[in-house]
Amino acid sequence: MIKKNTISINFKQAHQFLVMLLVLRIVSYFMLSEELIITQTIKAGLRALLTFVVMLHALMQLVKKDKVSIKVSNGLPLIGYGIYILLGAASLLWTSSFSQSLTQWLMDFETVVFVFFFMKMLLHYKAADVNDELRIGKIISSAVFIVAIGFLTGMIIDPDHYYRLTHGGEVSRLGGFIINPNELGMLLVIGIAGLFTEIKIAHRIRISILLKIALLTYMLMLTGSRSSFIGFLLVSIIYTLLQPSKIFKSILFIAIIILIPIIGWQLFITQSNAEEIGSLTGRLPFWRDLLMYNFPKEPWLGFGYMRIDYSDKFESINAYAGAMTHNTFLQVLMGLGLIGLMIIIVQLASFIYAMAATKKASTKIAGFLILIPLLINSLTEFGIFGETNYGILFYLILNFYFTLESKKCDNLLTRNKNLYESESDILNRSVVVA
């Protein structure tokens, strides 16, 4: 029994350590100072430090006798992403801005390295995780909730930095200069998606999880992000439809029906007008101009990694001037052409297939629920193949989680189960003797 408790405590410490790494990684994407040089230094330094930590953990495991090796269970998504990264590197030969493409590529490549070793660490711990305590939804939602508490504290003690004024100063949106409110909205929905998978554990509804979801939903409303609200609705509806209990399903549907007019009025009526919604805040005419005037110039290989024009900004005729497309698929089309677009479509399709092929239902549901806000954000913001952001971080985490597994996992699980059974037999014999 002593050994069993020790293992449980180790799992708790492992969970806390993984969550803390993920929290710091998310923070490394924020604007932490109004001085650009200070911000870039903090971002680069923090990311490099975190990558060093996860690589050091992997190195320490190599010198241990009971190390856990990792094997690829479904390699197509990883191969597809690797080809995409290699094409991005090759585009440095023809990019319209070598420095910008190189910077973006290096940041994305470093993210791949960090996520690989982070997931290797997670899989190392999960190799002996008999009770499935290190769940992907639990880890991600815990990290997001901690970040959300930081924003909740900030908006109370320093609202000038944590709110952003829009619509001529009439609307305040949570996020401030620290993060784009739409990106913060996506982050909150990712946290909500992860929390949904934690509501019912051992057929018991956890009130604490429901309260956390309520808090993140309230903060989502404060971001004023319409796309994130749509993602929230999809996640909520899909999760509700998957519930076997009719009573629980009815309660969730009633809650959704109550929330729709409250949040919908705030986001779609109070903060905007029909013309703004119809043009997706100017995105539709911008996309049309990109496809009509810029795409024909470089249709096959594009303008270079994360580039959309020969200059730093595309001067749209019918909309705003922009340096990025606000659509991850269009971003790849402009940067890497039709060849790049086909690669990421195949990569995304193969990843979705890998998730669907997962045997464990709860893991599969968690993956799909977390993917939904990432895809919604990809249609209107940076997205999973856009300029460096934490959407890429979470997408890569899902990719590695559903395509890698521990080689020694079965052996360790069997050994631990036998250990627990042996301890129980010893206790039973002791009781009989007594």
Order of helices and strands: HHEHHHHEEHEEHHHHHEEHHHEH
Number of helices: 16
Rounded mean pLDDT is 87
Low-confidence stretches: 1-9, 409-434
How does the major sheet shape up?
A: 2 strands, antiparallel
Number of domains: 1
Radius of gyration: 23 Å
Strand content: 5-15%
Query: How widely separated are the two ends?
Result: 18 Å
- Please provide the count of β strands: 8
Strand order of the largest sheet: 1-8
3D structure, described in words:
- The protein is mainly α.
- The protein has one domain (2-433).
- The chain contains 16 helices and eight strands.
- It has helices spanning 2-27, 36-62, 76-90, 98-126, 136-157, 159-162, 181-196, 207-223, 226-241, 246-270, 274-278, 283-294, 328-356, 361-380, 390-401, 409-433, and strands at residues 70-72, 163-166, 171-174, 200-201, 204-205, 314-315, 321-322, 404-406.
- Strands 1-8 form a two-stranded antiparallel ribbon.
- α2 (36-62) packs parallel to α4 and α9 runs antiparallel to α14 (361-380).
- The protein is globular and about 60 Å long.
- The protein starts with a helix and ends with a helix.
Key structural traits:
434 residues, mainly alpha, two-stranded antiparallel ribbon, 16 helices, disordered N terminus, disordered C terminus
Topology summary:
Blueprint: H1 2-27, H2 36-62, E1 70-72, H3 76-90, H4 98-126, H5 136-157, H6 159-162, E2 163-166, E3 171-174, H7 181-196, E4 200-201, E5 204-205, H8 207-223, H9 226-241, H10 246-270, H11 274-278, H12 283-294, E6 314-315, E7 321-322, H13 328-356, H14 361-380, H15 390-401, E8 404-406, H16 409-433
Antiparallel strand pairs: 1-8, 2-3, 4-5, 6-7
Helix pairs in contact: 1-2, 1-5, 2-4, 3-13, 4-15, 5-7, 7-8, 7-9, 7-14, 9-10, 9-14, 13-14, 14-15
